[in-house]
Amino acid sequence: MVSQPKIVLGAWAWGDNNSYFGNNYDQAHFQKVYDEAIKAGLTFWDTAYAYGAGASEELLGNLMQNTPREQLTISTKFTPQMADNSSKPVESMLAGSLQRLQTDYVDYYWIHNNADVEKWTPQVIPLVKSGKVKHIGVSNHTLSEIKRVQEILNEAGLKLDAVQNHLSLLDRTSEQAGILDYCRENRIQFFAYMVLEQGALTGKYTTDNPFPAGSVRAQVYNNKLPQLTSLINELKEVGDKHNISVAQTAMAWAVSKGALPIIGVTKTNQVADAATVAQVQLNDDEVTRLEKVADAAGVNTIGSWEQDMRQD
Prior knowledge:
This protein is of the alpha/beta class. It has one domain: TIM Barrel. The protein contains twelve helices and eight strands. The protein has an eight-stranded parallel barrel, surrounded by five helices. Helix 1 (27-39) runs parallel beside helix 11 (268-277), helix 4 packs across helix 5 and helix 9 packs across helix 10. It is globular and about 50 Å long.
């Protein structure tokens, strides 16, 4: 039986080919990252067909083959905008994911966004009943949409097991909209993505050391870096008391919210950072201090594909 982890490792940047994240790592590079994760006991991986049009899944699938499948927890996604024209597009996308991942089931299958709750939610139901999907999740859904998904699944004798939304010190709209409270009350695991704001909350990137020129991250974050100086300093001050880094402190904040953070990893040291965070607990005063400074920064990091969850 796999114990419930406190950290999920994300493979969004795998197979990126130097476009969004500004890296071009090959499988040999990710082999070291994967091996380090398994060694550290981090066995929960999150990917999606949308990440590199299957490249992320393929890399992860190749690396998974030397680990007993039952020791891994694998999460991937159905993205409505990438659906094919077949009569069963959700089943079709899952079939491709299973092939690339070289497995016959996934532990979590997500509807990647809220494109059409009424249309897509029912199409996941037969995949659970077939055993190809163990748990259903939704990503980028508002509270009212989450409740509607829950109703549709309940009618089929199933339940929603997980919600995955953007949650960081710079985007707390899921918390402010009551989604975290709803998940807690209904025994739904909340997964937080972009906890580190794609590196902006790690302390690595500053006005003197910006994101790689030409990457999407540079376009989104480089002009925000001056506003983040005070928050980075506060993260460092809080982290120093726990002997953890700026990035680890931002992760620990998400854990303090009862969230399961998805931490993108492309290097072995990032795996080590994630493994340490599971042992750290911030106190209420530290959480409040961080949120106060983050709010004062006034930085909006809601992505073009996302919505302000408070506007539900």
